[in-house]
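ESCALATION

Customer reports they have been waiting on this structure for their group meeting. Please prioritize. Original submission:
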Amino acid sequence: MDRIPVQHRKDQGRFYKGIPIHAAPSVHEAAGALLERHAPPPATVLDLGGGSGALTARLRDRGYSAALADLDPPPSPGGPCYTVDLNGPFDASSFGGVLYDAVVASEVIEHLENPRGFIRDVRGLLREGGILLLTTPNVVDVDSRRLLLTRGEFWLFRRGTLFSTGHLSILPYWLLQEVFRTEGWTIKETRFIGRKERTGWRRLLVPLVNVLLLPLGFGIPWRAAWAPCVAFVCSPKASSRG
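Update from on-call: job pushed to the front of the queue and completed.
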């Protein structure tokens, strides 16, 4: 799903085995570690909105049986692959009728027109006891707080960037928590993950300014101040399964 035209440098780890990573640094690594904790290999996994296939390849290397699904999947996916528009309704029949132990949606939901409908539809892709691992930009980190104060914008959700980022839905972590609960999911774990890379003067000045802004977010979890993304591991409650 994520086809952002971002420049990637190999020496910054922005490729996985030559496949470009369309996520903040270390997000895919953290997602893999979370998945191993809640659904160890050789679980079956569907990588929804898998884009270039970097995360799918990483999961296969960890021992998972992983399939990829995207609106514009890569030409050589290296395994099961499905073409799907996640803005429309979907169910198991969209993926060959297969149900999965886990569904991964990394940096996808912010691109969708109907995030709540997406979360509902994912339920029908999971086996009994299955989980959803979802990551999205953390719009309450200190960079976002600074942008909100000075420009009325959020990090990765700035005016004039819709075409380049495709980001449609601003979803702070607390709002997603409420959506999961009201849609009949149990949140097993919430983690703030990833890191940002700064160069030049920004590497020194921006962190200093951000530290000065920290008192304005005294009611926000400490880890949320510094992490560019948030990850949720959830499972549907038995009464809410389709």
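Sent to customer with the following note: The domain at 10-138+168-197+226-237 is CATH 3.40.50.150 (Rossmann fold).
Escalation resolved.
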